[in-house]
Amino acid sequence: MSDNLEQLFVKQLKDNQNIIHKICRLYTNDEDAHKDLFQEITIQLWKAFPKFRGESKFSTWAYRVALNTAITLYRKSTRAVATTPYESQKHFLSQEEYNFEEEEQIKLMYQAVQQLNDIEKALVFLYLEDKDYTEISETLGISEVNARVKMNRIKGKLKKILNP
């Protein structure tokens, strides 16, 4: 590959690496597994980069490749690549005003999301990232209508988990 293509890839990867880290956090439960998954996603992005036609934003394309890679490894893995437990997600909470009740609600929500299947987790992740249904559908490779229907079903599923 040309140096220009490599430089473009490195720039795009640097600009969008938080996407990959968030997905790694979602599908791993320790630092080594996180690093392994990050490396594998980077390799898959690099392999696929020459085929990236720019029809969508790089970030949308990267979400899709990263999620597909994570889900594929998650399904194939013989060692448990478990999802991240709540305790390792505490750094996402704002510590400005400590609210025990809010923390407990977030903890319960994470526990509920952990019970979803991998595709449902990906959809919830994108939804919580404030992605619109167009971008969610492009990222997951499903229709916008299907994304909306799945999200409504997931909301119902989460309500049943949280309020049995």
Automatic annotation (TrEMBL):
User: Which stretches make up the RNA polymerase sigma-70 region domain?
Assistant: 15-79
Tell me yes or no: is Transcription regulation among this UniProt entry's keywords. Answer: yes
Q: Which InterPro entries match?
A: RNA_pol_sigma-70-like, RNA_pol_sigma-70_dom, RNA_pol_sigma70_r2, RNA_pol_sigma70_r4_t2, RNA_pol_sigma_r2, RNA_pol_sigma_r3/r4-like, WH-like_DNA-bd_sf
Q: Which Gene3D superfamilies match?
A: 1.10.1740.10, Winged helix-like DNA-binding domain superfamily/Winged helix DNA-binding domain
Domain called RNA polymerase sigma factor 70 region 4 type: residue spans: 109-158
Q: Name one GO biological process term.
A: DNA-templated transcription initiation
Source organism superkingdom: Bacteria
GO MF, one term, reads: sigma factor activity
Q: Which UniProt keywords apply?
A: Sigma factor, Transcription, Transcription regulation
Q: Which Pfam families match?
A: Sigma70_r2, Sigma70_r4_2
Q: Which family does it belong to?
A: Belongs to the sigma-70 factor family. ECF subfamily.
What's the protein here called?
A: ECF RNA polymerase sigma-E factor
Species of origin: Flavobacterium sangjuense
